[in-house]
Amino acid sequence: MTIQPRSRSNSGSSDDSNAAFPSFEALAPTREFTTTPLTAENRVVVKGIPDVRLKVDAGPGCGGIAWLSGEVMSRYLAYRHRLEPHHLVGKTIVELGSGTGLVGIATAMLEPTAEVWATDQDCLVDLMQANADLNLLPVGSNLHIGELSWGEPITHVPAAADVVLAADCVYFEPAFPLLVQTLCDLAPVGKDTEILFAWKKRRKRFWAMLKKHFDWEVVMDDEPGAREVYTREGINLLRLHRRR
Ligand SMILES: C[S@@+](CC[C@H](N)C(=O)[O-])C[C@H]1O[C@@H](n2cnc3c(N)ncnc32)[C@H](O)[C@@H]1O
């Protein structure tokens, strides 16, 4: 089954950065959905934790379905956790543009001592919370669901995270400076914040903005063979470092 996000009526062409809303046509998966479709729920297999159960809902936009970048990041975190079980112990972790909540949920399941914030725009908070509940990570667990609109002051989420996660957040040009601002806010100069950034090759202009504040490197220590598979889908996994 291929799940197609509902498009906005005024979305225009996928390259029209002046459109009032992002166009989701350019984002619609061209592959079969990689998770196992159930009636209204999908399961994402991440080695080391129970399958992540996800309700999807294309109503709130592209974040309402799970994208391959999020699966790639979840599986990388799980692989790293197997190699270095202490890596995330006690960490404060913030996921940006979480959508269904997949990466945040997987991370909270992997490391119960970490405090994980899965964040997105207000319209996705209910879906993220529903998925947190579905995976037995209700309010009061180590997974916190919150609204965080890029570029806005960070109020509901810890301002200085140890780890920041962002999967498939580069697609709508007017949001690029907002995303860079939020990355800067969460990773202040002088703090050694780890930022993992999975992105699908779409827009190049973002990188010119990002490089004023961050350097980056390709994550090369993923599970053997994994990188070859996801780069064929146009996905890359990077680690960003705040410039001094
Ligand atoms: C392509 S989806 C990726 C969702 C999820 N990370 C995944 O990999 O499945 C992009 C996400 O970025 C979020 N997003 C876009 N603009 C945003 C903004 N200005 N503030 C916060 N989140 C935003 C969307 O709501 C959406 O959930």
TrEMBL record:
Residues 1-21 are annotated as: Disordered. The keyword Methyltransferase applies. S-adenosyl-L-methionine binds at W67, G97, S98, G99, D120, W150, A167. InterPro entries: EFM6, Methyltransf_16, SAM-dependent_MTases_sf. Its main location: cytoplasm. Residues 1-20 have a biased composition (Low complexity). The keyword Methyltransferase applies. GO terms for molecular function: protein-lysine N-methyltransferase activity. It comes from the Eukaryota. Its EC number is 2.1.1.-. Transmembrane segments: none annotated. GO terms for biological process: methylation. GO terms for cellular component: cytoplasm. It is found in: Cytoplasm. HAMAP family: Methyltr_EFM6. Belongs to the class I-like SAM-binding methyltransferase superfamily. METTL21 family. EFM6 subfamily. This is Protein-lysine N-methyltransferase EFM6. The gene is EFM6.
